[in-house]
Each structure stands twice: as C-alpha cells, then as structure tokens.
Amino acid sequence: MLVYANHFRFEGEGVEEALFKAIGGWLKEQLGFGLHPDQLRREGEFEGCRSFTRFDGSRIAAPSRLRIVATDEEEPVLYAWTLRNPDDSVRGRHWITELGFKRVRQCVNFSCVLRTDESSVLAGQSPVAPSCPRVIRYVVKNVEQTPTASFAPSVGALEVKSVGEDMDSYHALAVEIGRQERDCPLLLVSPTKEGEYLLDVEDLQQVLIGLGQVVQIHRNFNSYDMAEVLGQQFSAWGGAVNVLFTPTPTGIVRNKLFLSDEILDWGSNQHERISHLLKWVTNNTNVQRLRERIRPEGVAQLAIRRRMHAAREKSLRMTAEQLRLELEKAENEAAKQIEYFDELVNQNSQLEATVATLREELEDAKKESARKDYTIQSLKDRLSQARESPSDGIDVTELVELAWRDEPSPLDCLDLLEKVYPDKCIVLPSARSSAEEMNGFANGRELMRLLRKLVTDYRSKLMNEGDSRARTVFSNNEYAAKESETVMRNKAMRRLRTFLYDGREVEMFRHLKIGVANDVTKTIRVHFHWDADKEKIVIGYCGKHLPVSSC
Q1: In angstroms, rounded to a whole number, what is the distance separating the alpha carbons of residues 202 and 186?
Q2: Which DSSP letter does residue 233 get?
Q3: Torsional class of 32: left (φ above 0), alpha (ψ -120 to 50), beta (otherwise)
Q4: Where does 255-319 have alpha helices with state H?
Q5: Which H or E element spans position 452?
C-alpha cells in the first residue's frame, strides 16, 4: 500500500554533502549503527536492529534490512536506498522506505516513497496511519542549514502563506486556485470566532512540505469579502479547514471542507489532526509524485549496463586470471540482481491483483451508470411525449416517481423538477452550482420526493391558505420556515443565504432539510423563496449544510 510519495529538486555545491549527512543520520537510527558516506555510495546489503519503546513503556528491538544500489562512474550519478523493517505493533506488516538520489553537476533530484507490505490478513484489519517520514525532516533541516545548498525555484509548499489582510490577497489566491500548473493542494486554515487556530500552521506546513500549501487566513479577515471574491466553495471560516485539490485536466477544482467540530473530533493533539489532513493531501498527490521517483530497479539496470560496457573495454587488456575474477564478480552481481528483481516481480503481482480488482469494480460501476443513463433517457423521452400528447392519460407525477426508483443526484433532481413543473418553479444557477458539489449524496429519491411536494402540495396550500397551513405538508424534520436567531443576527451568515434572483439579492431562509450530520452523503439543504407575483417557488440553493456560526 502506497502511504507517502514526495520529490524534491535541490541546487548548490553543498547539496550532496547535506543530503548524505541527513540520510546517514536517519539510517543510523533505523539500523542501530552508522555507515560511512563511502559505504552509502557503494552497493551492498546491511542487516541491523532498530530499538523502540512500545505503548506499555517496554523497550524492544526489531530487525531492519538496507539494500543499496549505485552507479557513479559517470553522470548522471544515481543512488537508491531501500529500507525494510516490521511495524512496531501490527504483526504481518512491514514498512518499506525507498530513497532515490540523482545528480547532474550541481543539480540534485531526491525522491522518497513510503509503502507497506501486508503479509497477513490481520495486518489489513489495522488501518495505516499516514505520516511524513522522519528522513524528510532531516533532509529539509540539513539543506536549510547549508549555505551552499537550496531548494530549486520550482519546489513549492515550503512556507506558510497568508490571506485576508486586504482584498488583493483574495484576488491573488483566486488566481492561484485556478492555475492549471498547480501541483500542490491548498489548505485554507481559518480562525475560530475567538481568533484561535485549531491547527499549528507551521507544524502542518512542515509535515506537508512539497505536498500541500498551507494558507493561514488572517484573524481580522472579512468572511463576506472572502466569499464574494473566492466563492463559498473556496472559502473557510469559524475554525474550518478547506482543502482545495489540484485542478483536473479539464480545470475543475474540487474541495473538501472540514468544519471545526469535525476537526475537534479527530483528537486533542496536533499530531492526530495533522495526520488526518496528510491523508487527504497524499491521496491527491501520491500518484503524481510516484511517477517522479528514482526507481531502485532503474538504478540497478543502469549500473549493470555501465559495468558491462567497462568490462568489455578492459577485457582485451586482461590476463586469463583477471578475466576469470571479473566474470565471477559479474556473476555474483547478476545473482543479486535476479534476487532483487524476483522481489519486484512479487510486489508487481500484488499490485496487479489489486488493479485487476479495481478494474472489475470500475467496469461494474460503468455498466450500472450506463443502465441508469439509459433508464433516465427513456423516461425523459416518455415525458416529452406525454407533454406533447396530454390526452394519452400519462400521469406526470407517477412518471416522476417511476423515474427515480434508482438514486438520482441532486442536480438530476433539479433538472427533472424544472422540466416537469416549469410553470411552478424556477431553479437559479446558484442552486445548480451547489448541487454539482453533491454528487456523493446517497438519498436522491427522498430529495426528489420533497422537491415534488414543495412545488405541488406546498405551493397549492401556500397560494390558497397561507404559510402556516402550507408548512403542515412537511414534518418538522423536513422543513424549516426560518433560521436560528444566531444566524438571523449574523450579517455574514445571512449573506450566505442570499442569492441573486431577477436582478436583485433575495434572502432565502425557508429551507427543506435531510439529515443533520456533517456528511455530504447523508445531509442536504434546499433554500427557496416564494415569488407571489409569478406564483413560483424559486430554488436558490441545493447543497451541503450552510455554516451556522462565524468569526
């Protein structure tokens, strides 16, 4: 299982020394003994023992094994270190750390990949806790402390950035959010209403170095200005953290918002909270960073090719004894490489099995999606025919109920509602954009039922008997005529429930509701307005639960 992947570029004449010092210090911890820099540059294997303290306070030792492959006869100079050691507490799980080094003149590429090897079913039952390898901190610290070494200009996510001091900062962030070349997620960390932060932004950035850019929202920021420039989807307040993932090839930027209550549930210490965010970031970056890694097998193959070429060059000048010794050396190296490649074959077999399973699941999902698309299109065709031929006796309401025997998305619900009841409702663009973010909502049939009841039974009673009678169409768990006093008194919260309609801004406090948890798969809110002049329900929002408190 891939846990962590990262890649850095460094510059300067002191880079190599700084990196080898960091790697050597880290390996000393893992093996229980130190290796001379010359040993780190030569191929070989080392068996060691790593001591650690268990949760009960006892000290135990676990075996560790290091394999080094290298080729430095000419540029590019390449080294790869692969360390394997058992998990401290989960039987059957091994941790494998791959470090790669590539130097061309004074430019160095460094990669780090952390993965697990599960040799027991029991190991799979214990989730892997995401973490930043300690060696990364060693490398960063040594480079920062070396005057003649530095990160390449292309490396991002090194220091915490800020936003909210003025309007220009929001506009600059908006540009960065949409930049197609951005390869690091942005993490907007907002203050609570008391002006405190639930995460230490400096520690968070250190863990996410090279992977995620932490953006600290200023304590005195204006949430109204932020939402106006960035939009609600890309904003954060009240102690929330909003993770804005890298743009897709089509330019879409997805996000994941964590409210303050959810962050507090992760744990009381910073390590637990930061670890949870690291999981979301690496899920977005691991595949891309893995493609950039310096592969140990690639280093080994290049080393063999170079040595074979050198042996051919020297063979004409060798005595029979020298040639025999050279052949024996080549045979030993070949045997080691065969063993190494056998390990890689086993690893690839495991990965292929996982990929095959995922492909089967994907194909099943595609078939199910195609079936639903066919059903939806067929019903839409029947609906169109029903409109053109009302005398056919097709009941539109029954057709809507039939269409959604399978779960629709919120956007599908709005589309069908507007097509079936164009004379009874209006769906605003703001409702569509919020519904687009709710593809994971799992109770579309219930949403469709409430929307249909809203534009039929509720609308009819509202026109003839007033709101007090109309609201009885829904239960208390399905409908709210207004927001809480906290929201009504808060300008920023009122603003979030204000939508542009017919050239003017309209506050929409009436809303339908499904669910109460902070889970977009189970919870949704539909805010609407009654246009008495046009006698239409105007839907302004259909998305996740809007915030109910702000700084």
Answers
A1: 14
A2: G
A3: left
A4: 260-265, 270-291, 296-315
A5: helix 444-453
- 2 residue type, one letter: L
Residue whose entry in the numeric block shows the structure tokens 């001591």: 51
Tokens representing 515? 């669910």
**CB-based contact 40:60 (threshold 8 Å):** no
Instruction: Say how many residues make up the chain.
Output: 551
DSSP state of 128: P
Orientation angle between helical segments 223-230 and 167-178, nearest 10 degrees? 30
For residue 360, give both structure tokens: 């089967």
- Nearest alpha-carbon partner for 43 in 77, 83, 75, 71: 71
Calculate the alpha carbon distances from 515 to 149, 529, 541 in Å. Answer: 54, 21, 16
Which pLDDT tens digit goes with each residue over 213-265?
Answer: 999 999 999 989 999 999 989 999 999 999 999 998 888 999 999 999 999 99
Pairing of strands 77-86, 93-104: antiparallel
Nearest-angstrom CA–CA distance, 142 and 195: 34
> Given its phi and psi angles, is residue 92 left (phi above 0), alpha (psi -120 to 50 degrees) or beta?
left
- Evaluated on CA atoms 373, 376, 380, 381, the torsion sign reads positive
SS3 of 30, please?
Answer: helix
Helix H, strand E, coil C: the string for 360-418 is HHHHHHHHHHHHHHHHHHHHHHHHHHHHHCHHHCCCHHHHHHHHCCCCCCHHHHHHHHH
In degrees to the nearest 10, what's the CA dihedral of 465, 468, 474, 475? -150
Q: How confident is the model at residue 547 (pLDDT cuts 50, 70, 90)?
A: confident
Helix (H, G, I), strand (E, B) or coil at 258: strand
Chain-centre distance for alpha carbon 437: 15
Distance CA 96, CA 18 (A): 23
pLDDT of residue 130: 77
Give the containing element (helix H, strand E) for 463: helix 459-465
Distances (CA, A) of 533 to 404, 422, 456: 32, 16, 17
Partnered with residue 52 across adjacent β-strands are 60
Residue 286 CA to residue 297 CA, distance in Å, equals 20
pLDDT of residue 551: 40
> What is the C-alpha to C-alpha distance for residues 240 and 256, in angstroms, rounded to an integer?
10
For 390, other C-beta atoms within 10 Å of its C-beta total: 9
- C-alpha 86/C-alpha 116 separation (Å) is 9
